[in-house]
């Protein structure tokens, strides 16, 4: 056992040598918990990656800081704005001494004192069509959109889609207070967020982009609106008269500093796990209440009694039905690849869904139930798994993979 532990230590130290060029021991200590979590090869992928963070305010500064501390090997930090006194309540590293300095340079200075082995480039630059090539060239492994201006945000997301770049978009973090409502989902599924709604509309209208972009957003309805703009005289004035950059708002939205910080941490966690190729299943956005899950459980029981004469093979309760319907099938038929119904549409869709056994030779457990529409369920009951495998191999493989994950997740809960 002692020899095994020694070999593991040597392997980890060897990883430190790969990850940096100055101090192997220091790098090992800095990233040891990541290495223990991801494993050597996965951490090497993180450390060999290049990430671009655009927008370095309350969200972007925290996202960038945690990417740095996670060992990302190369960072490009982009923001045209300066650190202000009012931003100190939510910025990741800025101090009073940094007020008036560009946010990008502020982060680079502090980051260099934390992890000088990371290659950090900072650009005091506004993202637009003229700066696209300068910012997005170099084949970044991920782009983080932490911009709060709709025009710039839409242009960036469209450019990333056009270039085939992986991008993660942050939506509105202001005027919210509940960290438990923060989610990661496809742009099509974001709700209760005016910024998401506007971005979704503009991308569809101007670029024909329907979805396929992951976003971090809050299910919480905003607690406040933009405050009226007051000029030096104390009177309400036209905010456009004070804009340094056309199209950027100068009115203030109330912000609880911890919420944008959590947004940034969520973004960093998502990106790092993606870079490490760690499979993480994000919580689906399924707007159903407990009564809907009870209804699905009742339908399953009645179907079993009708088909088999008994419901004794139903080995799931309402809570486990909730797991199957929500976590495995995201509240929609197993035949559907993406969300079409969200919000009230999701509530209506449950009226035509039911759970049935995938393999009729096995009992109705969490790892042997699929969510199907009524007609699909009838068709499924008339076919064999061999027939499905032969004629719909992609569907067969996808369902099998999902059910295997359910089996493994529930097996882990037993220990």
From TrEMBL:
Residues covered by the THIF-type NAD/FAD binding fold domain: 32-289
GO biological process, one term: cyclic threonylcarbamoyladenosine biosynthetic process
InterPro entries, per the entry: ThiF/MoeB/HesA, ThiF_NAD_FAD-bd, Ubiquitin-activating_enz
SUPFAM superfamilies: Activating enzymes of the ubiquitin-like proteins
Membrane topology type: Multi-pass membrane protein
GO CC list: mitochondrial outer membrane; plastid
Main location: mitochondrion
Entry keywords, A to Z: ATP-binding, Ligase, Membrane, Mitochondrion, Mitochondrion outer membrane, Nucleotide-binding, Transmembrane, Transmembrane helix
UniProt keyword GTP-binding, yes or no: no
Superkingdom as given in the UniProt entry: Eukaryota
Pfam families: ThiF
Spans through the membrane: 7-28, 48-68
GO molecular function, one term: tRNA threonylcarbamoyladenosine dehydratase
Subcellular location: Mitochondrion membrane; Mitochondrion outer membrane
Role this protein plays: Catalyzes the ATP-dependent dehydration of threonylcarbamoyladenosine at position 37 (t(6)A37) to form cyclic t(6)A37 (ct(6)A37) in tRNAs that read codons beginning with adenine.
Family membership: Belongs to the HesA/MoeB/ThiF family.
Name of the featured protein: THIF-type NAD/FAD binding fold domain-containing protein
UniProt source species: Citrus clementina (Clementine)
